[in-house]
Amino acid sequence: MELIDTHCHLNMEQFNFDLDDVINNAISQNISKIVVPGVDISSSQRAIDLAENFSNVFAAVGIHPNDGNKWDRSTLAELSSLATHPKVVAIGEIGLDFHWDDCPKNLQLDILKTIGSR
Q: For position 44, what pLDDT does the model report?
Protein backbone atom coordinates (compact mmCIF):
# COMPACT_ATOMS: atom_id res chain seq x y z
CA MET A 1 0.00 0.00 0.00
CA GLU A 2 1.26 3.45 -0.94
CA LEU A 3 1.01 6.09 1.81
CA ILE A 4 1.12 9.89 1.76
CA ASP A 5 2.07 11.90 4.84
CA THR A 6 -0.03 15.04 4.50
CA HIS A 7 1.41 16.91 7.48
CA CYS A 8 5.08 16.45 8.28
CA HIS A 9 7.08 19.38 9.67
CA LEU A 10 10.41 18.48 8.08
CA ASN A 11 11.06 22.23 7.83
CA MET A 12 11.62 22.50 11.59
CA GLU A 13 15.15 22.75 12.94
CA GLN A 14 15.14 19.39 14.70
CA PHE A 15 15.42 17.78 11.25
CA ASN A 16 18.45 19.82 10.14
CA PHE A 17 20.91 17.04 10.91
CA ASP A 18 19.11 13.89 9.80
CA LEU A 19 16.69 15.01 7.10
CA ASP A 20 17.99 12.57 4.48
CA ASP A 21 17.67 9.69 6.94
CA VAL A 22 14.11 10.69 7.89
CA ILE A 23 13.02 10.91 4.25
CA ASN A 24 14.74 7.65 3.32
CA ASN A 25 13.13 5.92 6.31
CA ALA A 26 9.71 7.22 5.21
CA ILE A 27 10.30 5.84 1.71
CA SER A 28 11.32 2.46 3.17
CA GLN A 29 7.97 2.42 5.02
CA ASN A 30 6.02 2.93 1.76
CA ILE A 31 5.43 6.65 2.29
CA SER A 32 5.67 7.79 -1.29
CA LYS A 33 4.90 11.49 -0.82
CA ILE A 34 5.33 13.96 2.03
CA VAL A 35 3.59 17.34 2.36
CA VAL A 36 5.47 19.83 4.51
CA PRO A 37 3.31 22.67 5.87
CA GLY A 38 4.56 26.14 6.65
CA VAL A 39 3.49 27.88 9.85
CA ASP A 40 4.79 31.31 8.82
CA ILE A 41 6.45 32.89 5.79
CA SER A 42 9.96 31.63 6.55
CA SER A 43 8.89 28.03 7.27
CA SER A 44 6.69 28.11 4.14
CA GLN A 45 9.75 29.10 2.11
CA ARG A 46 11.74 26.35 3.81
CA ALA A 47 9.01 23.85 2.86
CA ILE A 48 9.37 24.94 -0.76
CA ASP A 49 13.16 24.64 -0.56
CA LEU A 50 12.80 21.07 0.71
CA ALA A 51 10.31 20.27 -2.04
CA GLU A 52 12.78 21.52 -4.63
CA ASN A 53 15.48 19.22 -3.25
CA PHE A 54 13.43 16.03 -2.82
CA SER A 55 11.22 14.68 -5.59
CA ASN A 56 8.76 13.07 -3.16
CA VAL A 57 8.35 16.19 -0.96
CA PHE A 58 5.70 18.84 -1.58
CA ALA A 59 4.90 22.08 0.24
CA ALA A 60 1.91 23.75 1.81
CA VAL A 61 2.24 27.45 2.57
CA GLY A 62 0.47 29.30 5.35
CA ILE A 63 0.38 31.13 8.65
CA HIS A 64 -0.60 29.09 11.69
CA PRO A 65 -3.63 30.61 13.45
CA ASN A 66 -1.55 31.13 16.59
CA ASP A 67 0.87 33.27 14.56
CA GLY A 68 -1.90 35.59 13.39
CA ASN A 69 -0.37 38.41 15.40
CA LYS A 70 2.46 38.43 12.87
CA TRP A 71 0.00 39.04 10.00
CA ASP A 72 0.42 42.37 8.21
CA ARG A 73 -0.45 43.95 4.87
CA SER A 74 2.31 42.11 3.03
CA THR A 75 1.52 38.63 4.36
CA LEU A 76 -1.24 37.79 1.90
CA ALA A 77 0.86 38.93 -1.04
CA GLU A 78 3.81 36.86 0.18
CA LEU A 79 1.65 33.76 0.64
CA SER A 80 0.05 34.28 -2.76
CA SER A 81 3.46 34.51 -4.37
CA LEU A 82 4.75 31.40 -2.59
CA ALA A 83 1.61 29.50 -3.58
CA THR A 84 2.45 29.85 -7.27
CA HIS A 85 5.44 27.52 -6.93
CA PRO A 86 4.78 24.26 -8.82
CA LYS A 87 5.58 22.09 -5.77
CA VAL A 88 3.06 23.89 -3.55
CA VAL A 89 0.03 21.60 -3.32
CA ALA A 90 -1.96 23.22 -0.50
CA ILE A 91 -2.55 26.25 1.67
CA GLY A 92 -1.82 25.51 5.30
CA GLU A 93 -1.27 25.68 8.10
CA ILE A 94 -4.11 28.13 8.25
CA GLY A 95 -7.50 28.27 9.88
CA LEU A 96 -8.77 28.52 13.42
CA ASP A 97 -7.14 27.24 16.60
CA PHE A 98 -8.91 28.22 19.79
CA HIS A 99 -7.08 25.70 21.95
CA TRP A 100 -4.24 28.12 22.66
CA ASP A 101 -4.68 31.76 23.57
CA ASP A 102 -1.86 33.13 21.39
CA CYS A 103 -3.98 35.03 18.90
CA PRO A 104 -7.43 36.58 19.41
CA LYS A 105 -10.34 34.65 17.88
CA ASN A 106 -11.58 37.68 15.95
CA LEU A 107 -8.16 38.15 14.32
CA GLN A 108 -8.01 34.45 13.36
CA LEU A 109 -11.47 34.75 11.81
CA ASP A 110 -10.51 37.91 9.90
CA ILE A 111 -7.39 36.24 8.50
CA LEU A 112 -9.31 33.14 7.47
CA LYS A 113 -11.95 35.27 5.73
CA THR A 114 -9.20 37.22 3.94
CA ILE A 115 -7.58 34.01 2.71
CA GLY A 116 -10.94 32.53 1.76
CA SER A 117 -11.89 35.55 -0.33
CA ARG A 118 -8.86 35.09 -2.61
A: 97
